[in-house]
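Chain X:
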Amino acid sequence: MSKPKKAQAYTPEEFDQIVNLLTTDASIRADIEAITGQSLDGKSPRELFNLFRAIGGAATVQEAVARFGRARRQLRQVRAELASDMVEHIADHPDVPTLARQRIVELETRLDEMKARMRALEQQTRRLAAAAQGAVPQASARAARAARVIRGEVSA
C-alpha cells in the first residue's frame, strides 16, 4: 500500500478539478454524503478537498482489507487441498502402516531408555543428598562442642 499523496503535492489545477467535481456532480455528492453521513452544503473548498482525500485514504484501506480477505480465503483453500491430497497419498501408500509401526517402536524404545536413565539419575541424586545430610550434622555437632569449650587463661 503506497502512502497517500500529501495535500501540498496536488497542483492548483488538480485542487480546482476536485472541488468542481464535488460541487457540480450530484451523484458523487450523494455518494459522499451517504458515506460520511453529513451534508456537503456550506463546506469550504478546502474542507471539500480534505474530505475527498480522507475518502480516498479510506478507500485505499478498504481495498487492502479486501485483498487481505481474498488472500486468506485462497490460503485456506490451498491448505484444505494439500491436506486432502496428503490424506489420499497416505491412504494410497502401502508402507505407511509399517513405517508408522516402526516409528512407534523406535519412540517407545527411546522412552524406555530415557525412563531408565531418569531413574538412575534420581537414585544418584538421593545418594548424594543422603551423603550431604550425613556430613552436615556431624560438622555442626563438632562446631557445637567446640563452641562449648572455652579456652583461655584463668586469672587469679
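Chain Y:
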Amino acid sequence: MQWLDLLILSEAAGGLVLATLNGAFFARLAQATRRPPRRVAALALTLVNGGLALEALLFLALASSTAGVERLAVLGVRSALFVATAFLALLAWRHGWRP
C-alpha cells in the first residue's frame, strides 16, 4: 500500500507547513494587537500551531511502515490533524493574512 503511505506522509508534510505558517501569523498578530484578550487568544493559537507543527515533524522523523488496519487508523488521525490545521489557516487567511 505505497499510495496510502504517500498520502499519510503528504498530509503530515502539509500539516507541518500550514502549522508553521499559522504559528508565524498568530505570533505576529499577538505582537500587533493592543487588546489583551486578543493577545492571549493569538498566543494560545500560536502554541496550538507550534504543537501541531512539532507533532507533524516528529511523525515525519519517526515514520515507519505499519500494516493494514494500522495504516488506516494513522490516516484517520493524520487527516483530522490536517483538517484542523487547514481550518486554522483558512481563518488566518480570511482575517487578511497573505502567505
